[in-house]
């Protein structure tokens, strides 16, 4: 089995980064976390990556005069290390069309809502305000439009009476840590791929499961 070389882009503590690193430790996992890149030198996730024995790279966006210069530096660092796929994990920079198109079909992101609902920020607050009974997270391919890329995988959680943003976020992030490695596995082993703007799956899956909220 050829393991695909993956880079994780972070700006902060990198909790989803850790879940990907842990999953990739399994010998049968089709991805190797080869690099963690941060645009912030003080990102806590850098230390966590180093402790796990992962190579790190800081490309400070403040040290580059334009977004394009920053992204060209980042692209060069990725290319020099033979990176095949990128995972965004709390990377707090809006990427230009040039970078997104250069990595089309090879860059994924995890978002804390059931897209296409609640694109952007404050997803848990907005879900609670709307009174939805099901919320969750989504892994999708990155496209130039924010949080609008083709969906690879989703996980749902119930919204319960008395939920706060914090309690709902805690429930969702548990699923994020399960879902992101699953989605990375799918794109690295060819189970899911991007074709003409849609995700194509190479095998069927069990469609019998469901989530009821409120539960019976």
Characterization of this structure:
- 32% of the residues lie in helices and 24% in strands.
- The protein is α/β, with parallel strands linked by helices and 216 residues long.
- The strands form 2 sheets. It has a 7-stranded mixed beta sheet with strand order 3-2-1-4-5-6-7, sandwiched between helices. A two-stranded antiparallel ribbon has the order 8-9.
- Strand 2, helix 2 (44-51) and strand 3 form a beta-alpha-beta unit.
- Helix 1 packs parallel to helix 6.
- The longest helix has 24 residues, at 165-188.
- The termini are far apart.
- The model has no long low-confidence stretch (mean pLDDT 95).
Order of helices and strands: EHEHEHEHEHEEHEE
- The CATH homologous superfamily of the largest domain corresponds to Formyl transferase, N-terminal domain
Write the CATH fold name of the largest domain.
Rossmann fold
Helix segment tally: 6
**Major beta-sheet overview:** 7 strands, mixed
The CATH C-level name of the largest domain is: Alpha Beta
Radius of gyration, Cα only, in angstroms? 17 Å
Named at the architecture level, the CATH assignment of the largest domain is 3-Layer(aba) Sandwich
Major β-sheet strand ordering: 3-2-1-4-5-6-7
Number of strands: 9
Q: What is the mean predicted local confidence, pLDDT?
A: 95
- Structural classification: alpha/beta
- Specify the overall morphology: globular
Q: Looking at the chains present, what oligomeric state does this protein adopt?
A: single chain
Strand content: 15-25%
Provide the helix percentage: 25-40%
**Low-pLDDT regions:** none
- What is the CA–CA distance across the termini? 44 Å
Provide the number of structural domains: 2
């Amino acid at each position: 089995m050829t393991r695909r070389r993956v880079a994780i882009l972070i700006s902060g503590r990198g909790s989803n980064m850790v879940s990907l690193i842990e999953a990739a430790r399994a010998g049968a996992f089709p991805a190797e976390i080869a690099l963690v890149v941060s645009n912030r030198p003080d990102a806590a996730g850098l230390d966590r990556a180093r402790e796990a024995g992962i190579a790190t790279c800081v490309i400070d966006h403040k040290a580059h005069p334009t977004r394009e210069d920053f992204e060209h530096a980042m692209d060069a660092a990725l290319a020099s290390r033979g990176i095949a796929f990128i995972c965004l994990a709390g990377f707090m920079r809006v990427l230009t069309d040039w970078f997104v198109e250069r990595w089309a079909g090879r860059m994924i992101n995890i978002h804390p809502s059931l897209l296409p609902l609640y694109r952007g920020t404050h997803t848990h607050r907005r879900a609670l305000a709307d009174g939805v009974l099901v919320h969750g997270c989504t892994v999708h391919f990155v496209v130039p439009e924010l949080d609008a890329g083709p969906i690879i995988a989703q996980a749902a959680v119930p919204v319960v009476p008395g939920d706060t943003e914090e309690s709902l976020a805690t429930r969702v992030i548990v699923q994020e840590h399960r879902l992101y490695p699953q989605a990375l596995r799918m794109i690295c082993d060819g189970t899911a791929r991007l074709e003409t703007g849609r995700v194509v799956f190479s095998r069927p899956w069990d469609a019998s499961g469901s989530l009821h909220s409120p539960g019976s």
